[in-house]
Specification:
The complex is a heterodimer of chains A (150) and B (501). Chain A contains four helices and five strands. Chain A is of the alpha/beta class and 150 residues long. Chain A has one domain: Rossmann fold (3-Layer(aba) Sandwich). A five-stranded mixed beta sheet of chain A has the order 2-1-3-5-4, with helices on one face. Chain B is an alpha+beta fold. In chain B, 41% of the residues lie in helices and 19% in strands. Chain B has 17 helices and 19 strands. In chain B, the strands form six sheets. Chain B has a six-stranded antiparallel beta sheet, covered by helices on one side. In chain B, strands 9-8-7-12 form a four-stranded mixed beta sheet. In chain B, a hairpin with a 5-residue loop joins strand 8 and strand 9. The longest helix of chain B has 33 residues. The radius of gyration of chain B is 22 Å and the shape is globular. Chain B starts with 18 loop residues before the first strand and ends with a strand. Classes of the chains: A alpha/beta (150), B alpha+beta (501). Chains A and B meet through helix 3 of A and helix 5 and helix 6 of B.
C-alpha cells in the first residue's frame, strides 16, 4: 500500500512548522512504500501527489485544536477559499474530485495543537510535547493497515 | 526615445482635492502591492501609481551572517522562485571563494535546477494567475477568475490540468536536484553537493514527451488567444521601452550565466556583452517617496530615458536566437507580430513566457541525457575574495546579488536588485496607460479596475515575502471620497467570503 504523509506549514512561523517537523522526524523510520513530503501550503498540484497513493495523511498545525492533536477522516468539500496558493484540505479533495473525475483515496487530517505562530519563532514548548504524542500516533497508524478504514 | 507618454499621471497637481480609489492588494500576483488612482469630479484620472507597501529589509539582516549561509538564507526571500535567489546567491558566493567557473558537472546540475524552476514558475503564473482573465474574459465575474474555476469547467479543465502537471514536473526537477521542492540544499561555494541519481533520471525522463506536449499546447493556447483579438491585445497596456537581458557570447537566449545586452526600443543593440560584475557602472537606482521599490535606470541614459524592461519579453526580444529548435521556431513567429521589431505589448509577456516554458522542457530533455549530471567533479576552489556578484535570469528577469565580506567571512554589505524592481517604471507606465485609455472619464467598475491588475499581472511581479499567515492576509477594498471619508469598504475573510465592512 502506497502511503503519502504530507506535513504542511511554515517552519519560519513557530508552531506553524509542526507538520513539516513531524515529517522530518519520520525520515529513516518508515517503509519504502511511505512517501514523506513537506509543503508550505496546500496547492492544486498536491492533487497529483494524492493521485499517486492509496492513502494519505495530511498534517497541519491548529490554533484552536484540542491538545495534543485531532485526527479525522476528510471528505471533499467545496469552500470559498479564494487563493489557489493556499487550499483548505477539504477543498483540495474537492479539487481532486472535480479535476480527476473520481473520488480521492482515503485521506486523513492530523491537526497538532499549536499556540505561537510568530515570525521567526521556533516550536513552543507545549507544541514540542504535542509533537511527540502525534509522532507516536503516526508511527502506530502507519503500521496499522486497519487505519485505512478510518 | 523611450519617453514615458503617461508620465504626467505620476504626480497630480492638487491631490487633496481629488477622489482616491485604491486596489489593495493587487490580486493574483506574488506578494503585496496596491494601486491608487486619483480622480477629479468628472472621473478624469489625474494620478495612477503602483505602490509596493512592504518594507523587506532583507539586505540588512543578511549583514553579519557568514557568507556560506547566504544561498540558504536568501531562498527565504520568496516562496515562488526561491531557486532564483539560491542560484544568484550561490554565484555570488562562488566569486567570494575565488571561483569564476564551477566544474561542468556542477554547472549542468545548476542549469537543470534553473530550467525546472523557470518552467514551474512560468506555469504557475500563466495557468494559475493570468489565464483566467484570458479564458473567461476581462469582464467576467471576479469570483470566476481563478484556476479552480477553470478546473470546474469542462471546456477549460484539460488545459488547466496540463498547467498543473507542468508545474508539478518543474517542482519534481527541483526536488531531484536539491532534495525539496521549496528551500532545498544543493549549491555549495564553488559547486554542488551531489550528482543527480539514476532513480531520479528514471522518474523524470519518461515524463518528457508529455511535458513537451503540454508546453506546446500552452504555447498554442496563448498564441491563439492573443491573435484572436490581436489589435486589442497589441494596444492594451502597450508602452515603448528598452529591454535588458542576459545573452551568451554569440547572442543566444541565456538564463543562467551570460553577458548583459541592452536592446533599444527600435531593436538596435545599445550596449552588448556588458560584464555582470560591473553592473554598478551601468545600472543606477532612483528612489521615490511613495514606494518602497526603487526605480533602476541605465546610467548612460539617465532616469528619464534609461528605464527598461526585463523578463520573458525582454529575453525573447533581445536575443539573436534560442538554441533549442522548437522554442526558436516559436520565437521567429513571435517576432513577426511587429515585423521584426521588438514586441512592446505588455500582454505579449504571456506569449514569451510560454516560448520559454517550451525552451526549458527542451533543455531539460537534453540535460537529462548528459553523463556529466551523473559523474564528474562537483567543486572548485580558489583564493578568498572580499566581494562577490551573482547575476542570473530569474523567471521574471535579471536578478542581481552583490555581497561584501570581511576577513572573517561575515557579510558587511548586501545589495539585491530583484527582477520586479527593474520593471518598476514599466509597470507604473503600463497602469498609467490603462488608466488613461480605459478608465478616464468613466464610472469605475470592478471589470475596469481589473484591467489595471491585468496590466500589472502581465509582468508577473513578485512582491512577495512568502511569510504571510495563511488565511490571515488582509484583504480590504476601500473607496474614499474627496474629503477623505470612506464611502464603501469590502472585506474578504479567511474562508474567502466577502462582505461589506
Amino acid at each position: 500500500m502506497r502511503t503519502l504523509v504530507l506535513g504542511y506549514g511554515n517552519p519560519g512561523r513557530g508552531d506553524d512548522g509542526l507538520g513539516p517537523a513531524l515529517v522530518a522526524g519520520l525520515e529513516g523510520r518508515t517503509a519504502a512504500a511511505v512517501t514523506l513530503q513537506t509543503a508550505m501550503q496546500l496547492q492544486p498540484e498536491h492533487v497529483l501527489d494524492l493521485e499517486a497513493h492509496d492513502r494519505c495523511l495530511l498534517i497541519d498545525a491548529g490554533l484552536e485544536t484540542p491538545a495534543p492533536f485531532r485526527f479525522e477522516p476528510l471528505r471533499p468539500r467545496r469552500d470559498a477559499s479564494a487563493f489557489s496558493h493556499a487550499l483548505s484540505p477539504w477543498a483540495l479533495l474537492h479539487v481532486y474530485r472535480t479535476t480527476l473525475r473520481r473520488p480521492p483515496p482515503p485521506v486523513f487530517l492530523l491537526t497538532i495543537a499549536g499556540s505561537r505562530f510568530g515570525l521567526g519563532e521556533t516550536l513552543s514548548v507545549p507544541a514540542r510535547r504535542h509533537l511527540d504524542r502525534a509522532m507516536a500516533f503516526v508511527i502506530t497508524w502507519l503500521a496499522d493497515a486497519r487505519a485505512v478504514a478510518g | 526615445m523611450t519617453e514615458q507618454h503617461f508620465r504626467h499621471l505620476e504626480n497630480a497637481d492638487n491631490p487633496q482635492n481629488l477622489r482616491r480609489v485604491a486596489i489593495d492588494p493587487v490580486t493574483r500576483v506574488e506578494g503585496h502591492g496596491k494601486v491608487t488612482l486619483l480622480l477629479d469630479g468628472d472621473n478624469r484620472v489625474r494620478q495612477a501609481r503602483l505602490h509596493i507597501v512592504e518594507f523587506r529589509g532583507f539586505e540588512k539582516f543578511i549583514q553579519g551572517r557568514p557568507y556560506w549561509e547566504v544561498p540558504v538564507l536568501v531562498q527565504r526571500l520568496c516562496g515562488i522562485c526561491p531557486v532564483s535567489h539560491l542560484l544568484a546567491g550561490a554565484k555570488a558566493v562562488d566569486r567570494l571563494v575565488g571561483v569564476d567557473r564551477i566544474p561542468p558537472s556542477a554547472e549542468k546540475l545548476r542549469r537543470l535546477l534553473h530550467y525546472g524552476q523557470v518552467l514551474q514558475s512560468h506555469a504557475l503564473h500563466f495557468f494559475h494567475l493570468a489565464s483566467p482573465d484570458l479564458l473567461f474574459g476581462f469582464d467576467s465575474e471576479a469570483e470566476k477568475r481563478n484556476i479552480l474555476e477553470l478546473l470546474r469547467r469542462d471546456r477549460f479543465r484539460d488545459i488547466a490540468l496540463e498547467g498543473i502537471r507542468l508545474r508539478k514536473f518543474g517542482q519534481e526537477v527541483i526536488r531531484a536536484v536539491i532534495g525539496k521542492r521549496i528551500h532545498g540544499v544543493g549549491p555549495l561555494p564553488g559547486g554542488m553537493n551531489k550528482h543527480l541519481s539514476a532513480a531520479d533520471r528514471a522518474l523524470l525522463e519518461p515524463q518528457l514527451d508529455d511535458v513537451l506536449g503540454w508546453a506546446r499546447n500552452g504555447l498554442e493556447l496563448i498564441r491563439s488567444l492573443y491573435l484572436a483579438n490581436a489589435d486589442y491585445h497589441r494596444r492594451f497596456a502597450v508602452i515603448r521601452s528598452h529591454f535588458m537581458a542576459l545573452v551568451t557570447g554569440d547572442g543566444a537566449h541565456e538564463l543562467y550565466d551570460g553577458k548583459i545586452r541592452i536592446q533599444g526600443d527600435d531593436g538596435k543593440i545599445l550596449f552588448d556583452q556588458l560584464e555582470d560584475q560591473r553592473y554598478t557602472e551601468f545600472i543606477h537606482e532612483q528612489v521615490k517617496s511613495w514606494s518602497y521599490m526603487k526605480f533602476p535606470y541605465l546610467a548612460a541614459l539617465g532616469p528619464e530615458e534609461g528605464w527598461y524592461r526585463v523578463g520573458p519579453l525582454a529575453r525573447v526580444n533581445a536575443c539573436d536566437f534560442i538554441d533549442t529548435p522548437e522554442a526558436e521556431a516559436a520565437r521567429r513567429e513571435f517576432l513577426q507580430l511587429d515585423q521584426g521589431l521588438p514586441v512592446q505589448a505588455s500582454l505579449a509577456y504571456h506569449w514569451a513566457r510560454m516560448i520559454e516554458i517550451l525552451h526549458c522542457a527542451e533543455r531539460i530533455r537534453e540535460l537529462l541525457a548528459d553523463p556529466d549530471l551523473y559523474a564528474g567533479e562537483l567543486e572548485a576552489r580558489g583564493e578568498r575574495r572580499h566581494e562577490g556578484i551573482g547575476v542570473i535570469e530569474a523567471p521574471r528577469g535579471v536578478l542581481i546579488h552583490h555581497y561584501r565580506v570581511d576577513d572573517d567571512g561575515l557579510v558587511t554589505k548586501a545589495n539585491l536588485i530583484v527582477s520586479t524592481t527593474h520593471n518598476n517604471t514599466a509597470m507604473n507606465e503600463a497602469i498609467r496607460q490603462v488608466a488613461a485609455e480605459y478608465l478616464d472619464g468613466r464610472e469605475l467598475t470592478e471589470p475596469l479596475l481589473n484591467r489595471i491588475e491585468i496590466a500589472i499581472r502581465a509582468y508577473d511581479p513578485c512582491l512577495s515575502c512568502a511569510t504571510h499567515a495563511i488565511g490571515r492576509m488582509p484583504l480590504v477594498v476601500e473607496l474614499v471620497d474627496a474629503e477623505g471619508k470612506s464611502c464603501q469598504r469590502l472585506a474578504r475573510h479567511s474562508d474567502g467570503s466577502v462582505e461589506a465592512a
